[in-house]
Specification:
467 residues, alpha/beta, Rossmann fold, 2 domains, 21 strands
């Protein structure tokens, strides 16, 4: 089994949500014997990181030009994209198919219903892939019978319950700590910062021995909301990392310690394609409070789902939720009562952990991605053989200069057997993999440092916090 694959997304060494997913899926695909390279959304020369080749996508926005140029230059069976697809030309999938490459967009569906601009592009895809049950339901409802569900994953060996350390927030165990992990970059407030802060404000007025920590830029510097000003309007002080911590990102084990030091994670989002922090928190045994809308509806194993009081029309000609702020405050109060009675961890920790384990990277790959690749390869090879028969010759294509010179899909480019990357190791066990585990980070909206190497307990440090 071996497909020639281009994976188009954030670089594998980027400690962002898409970067972490890219690193973990592509490394496993290479271990399974597939020829995979990553075409980055960033402008950079070709490099190899951790045994994974990265190629440039070109200067066009979202590296759209590379989606056609590289399949034109290099024999490519399948092209994965991991991000929004609505900015691309509607017929991009047909253009990719004309080059003999199958397009497999793994795309977020963060509206309800799925925007027609997204559906129009998915109709040209050989293999539309949904990252959430909500997205899969919407694809099926839209008549995309070839849709597949492959969820995002989390490394549950790293994100796991540990001893809380509320000194990270310059407080103690007598304080109820609510945390928000997300980006603050959108003027339309998709992440739901205002309803989240408003709900906490109502709760805090009644229970002042509580704080809200946000792991995000608390100012408008990145294009989002002035969270400090919103907090002040509701009568509480916001806790947030300083600019240097956010810029550098936290080491992943420090991020795990941060999750474990929360009593609950809250995000009254308006719409999500997935929402990795919800699973990372629960993998650490921490319950969550989120909106019962789009992807989060299916991502709460332990916690509270907050209803909406209505919807908001967006530029995508579809809808986001208007979370119920009062219901959010009531969910916080229920969580607080369990915490004050000393029953929160006993009630929620194992339930959260068990649910998160269903999103473990190894399990997700084995259950969803590997069967998909096997099915796709069988179908792609059948079409290729049929095309050869129709041509009336052996169908052999001469290697291009790009292939000969750079060996983008050349097996000799891959690391030698034994380093855990690209050995084609069907016998590559989970225990061996853990020795070179790619560790997802989560700093500013799941940004942190991607670390490779043995797990170790770092010295406890205080996260620099501004108040």
């Amino acid at each position: 089994m071996s497909l020639s694959c281009i994976w188009h997304s954030a670089p594998a060494f980027f400690p962002t949500g898409y970067g972490v997913q890219t690193a973990n899926f592509v490394s496993r695909m290479i271990d399974d014997g597939h020829e995979c390279v990553i075409m980055t959304t960033t402008q950079q020369p070709s490099i190899t990181w951790n045994g994974i080749t990265h190629i440039p996508g070109g200067g066009e926005k979202y590296a759209a030009s590379g989606m056609l140029e590289w399949p034109r230059r290099v024999k490519t069976d399948i092209l994965f994209t991991l991000f929004d697809i609505w900015p691309f030309p509607e017929d991009i999938g047909s253009k990719i198919a004309a080059l003999g490459t199958a397009w497999a967009p793994i795309t977020p569906i963060d509206h309800d219903p799925v925007p027609q601009e997204v559906v129009a592009r998915l109709k040209h895809a050989a293999y539309p892939i949904a990252m959430s049950p909500h997205g899969f339901r919407e694809m099926q409802r839209s008549g995309l019978t070839n849709a597949t569900y492959i969820p995002h994953g989390v490394d549950t060996h790293v994100f796991r319950p540990r001893q809380p350390n509320k000194e990270l927030f310059k407080t103690n165990n007598e304080t109820f700590v609510v945390g928000v992990i997300g980006t603050n970059i959108e003027p339309l407030d998709r992440k739901g910062w205002y309803p989240t802060l408003a709900a906490f404000g109502k709760f805090h007025a009644k229970y002042p021995n509580s704080i809200l920590y946000v792991h995000a830029t608390p100012t408008r510097d990145d294009g989002g909301y002035d969270l400090m000003r919103i907090a002040e309007s509701f009568g509480f002080k916001l806790h947030a990392p300083d600019m240097w911590t956010l810029t550098a990102g936290l080491p992943v084990l420090k991020m795990v310690e941060l999750y474990n030091s929360l009593d609950v994670m809250m995000l009254l989002t308006r719409g999500e394609g997935f929402c990795i922090p919800l699973i990372e928190a629960q993998s650490c045994g921490v319950p969550v409070i989120t909106t019962d809308f789009t992807a989060p509806s299916d991502l709460v194993g332990a916690g509270w789902k907050v209803p909406s009081i209505g919807t908001r029309y967006t530029v995508m000609n579809s809808f986001w939720a208007e979370p119920d702020i009062d219901a959010g405050a009531r969910a916080l109060e229920q969580c607080y009562q369990l915490w004050r009675a000393g029953e929160l961890r006993e009630e929620m920790q194992q339930k959260a952990r068990n649910f998160a384990k269903t999103f473990d990277f190894d399990l997700v790959y084995k259950t969803y991605m590997r069967p998909f690749l096997e099915k796709a390869e069988a179908e792609i090879r059948e079409k290729q053989n049929a095309a050869k028969t129709a041509q009336g010759d052996d169908g052999v294509r001469q290697a291009t200069s790009a292939e000969q010179g750079r060996g983008v899909h050349n097996r000799q480019q891959r690391p030698s057997k034994g380093n855990g990357r690209g050995s084609g190791g069907n016998g590559h066990s989970s225990s061996k993999r853990r020795r070179h585990r790619i560790r997802p980070g989560a700093g500013n909206g799941s940004k942190g440092q991607v670390q490779v190497g043995p797990e170790c307990e770092g010295d406890r440090e205080t996260v620099p916090v501004t108040q």
